[in-house]
Design a protein that fits this description.
By secondary structure, the protein is mostly beta strands. It contains two helices and 17 strands. Helix content is 5%, strand content 49%. The longest helix has 13 residues.
């Protein structure tokens, strides 16, 4: 009831002339996730390593969504979701509709079609296994291409047309097309685009997924515009086992590319991620994760990341947590701790071979 009242108040403030519009199908939701982070760059000579402290808004967000029953099992759906920088940072946040934002139709028997900005099916296939998601220990430091991809594979893309099938005996399929040349100005420019697909399976404590994505970059500016005609692909398999006491997860991915002047498979590599969580009590849990990226065409360009965390639930919606993470590059590796949604730069690497680390103390509240 309180959420409906908030939604009505917001609708009245922004659309006073339409005071009689129906807002009864609006749901307000979000996440407030803020932490105090102590980071070290771990730079190697001749660069100088240094430490810094900051408050981070770890993908805190505010969203509005709704459905309208059209009859015969068909519904109109919509969502507007925005990143909110609780820490007061202005760069990269506080922009309306910069997260999953779409409109579409959903049928219980035929599936869902949506248009807008959305996580790709590849992203949907493995992100739920990241037990340190949206903070400095986020596995996107290495997974999804990390520093070894022109465009992120674990991404949220604009200009998306997506279809998600209904679940059939625990199996769901998803496919998405990204129109990547929306800013083309000349007929001579090559158009870029992207395709992503996934098969998602869940049955009781077991889940297993497959994802594939291809980026066809072009010279036309836009989502897939790199200024050159190029191509990169990735496939991933992932799975998990989850019961009340614990969960274990694993992800494997392989990337390939042909990035123009860089040559064939210049950044192509394999990476994997393992994570586990044990519920010590009904309110307390310990977490551990390990990620590893192999070298690309150049030797010693890989990296490893290890993360350790502790969660304490104050209620069903509020958790306080502590986490430690360290990323260790090979001698010519250039991976950095993830800055995904933290609202401030991550622990940067000053030159190749760096070993950045961080301690994060925070609180997460969902509503």
């Amino acid at each position: 009831m309180q959420k409906k009242i908030i939604a009505l108040a917001i609708a009245a403030a922004f659309a006073a002339p339409a005071a009689f519009a129906d807002t009864s199908n609006v749901t307000v939701y979000g996440v407030a996730n803020v932490s105090y982070d102590m980071t070290k760059t771990g730079a190697v000579a001749p660069a100088s390593s240094f430490s810094s402290n900051k408050v981070s808004s770890n993908t805190s967000r505010l969203g509005f969504k709704g459905t309208e029953d059209m009859g015969d099992g068909l519904s109109a759906i919509w969502q507007i979701e925005s990143l909110i920088q609780i820490d007061g940072q202005t760069a990269g946040g506080n922009t309306l509709a910069n997260r999953n934002t779409f409109a579409g139709l959903s049928s219980k028997t035929a599936g869902t079609v949506l248009l807008g900005r959305h996580d790709t099916p590849y992203n949907l296939s493995n992100r739920k296994y990241d037990l340190f998601a949206d903070g400095l220990a986020d596995n996107r430091s290495i997974m999804g291409g990390g520093a070894m991809a022109a465009l992120s594979f674990n991404g949220r893309q604009p200009n998306v047309v997506a279809y998600i099938s209904p679940a059939m005996s625990g199996l769901t399929g998803a496919i998405a097309y990204v129109a990547g040349a929306e800013l083309q100005t000349l007929a001579t420019q090559t158009k870029g685009d992207a395709w992503s697909l996934a098969a998602l399976y869940g049955n009781g404590p077991i889940s297993a997924n497959f994802g594939y994505e291809v980026h066809n970059a072009g010279t036309a500016p836009g989502t897939a515009g790199l200024g050159v005609t190029a191509k990169e692909t990735a496939w991933t398999i992932s799975g998990g086992y989850k019961v009340e006491a614990f969960e274990i997860n694993g992800i494997y991915e392989k990337t390939n590319d042909n990035l123009g002047a860089l040559g064939a498979n210049a950044l192509g590599h394999r990476a994997y991620y393992l994570s586990g969580k044990y519920n010590v009590t009904a309110s307390d849990a310990v977490k551990l994760a390990y990620a590893n990226a192999g070298s690309g065409a150049a030797i010693n360009t890989g990296a490893t990341q290890i993360s350790l965390g502790y969660d304490h639930s104050l209620s069903k919606r509020t958790t306080v947590y502590a986490a430690y993470t360290k990323l260790s590059n090979d001698t010519t590796g250039v991976y950095a701790l993830s800055g995904n949604g933290t609202g401030a730069p991550a622990a940067a690497v000053s030159g190749a071979g760096g070993k950045p680390s961080a301690i994060s103390l925070g609180m997460k509240h969902t509503f």
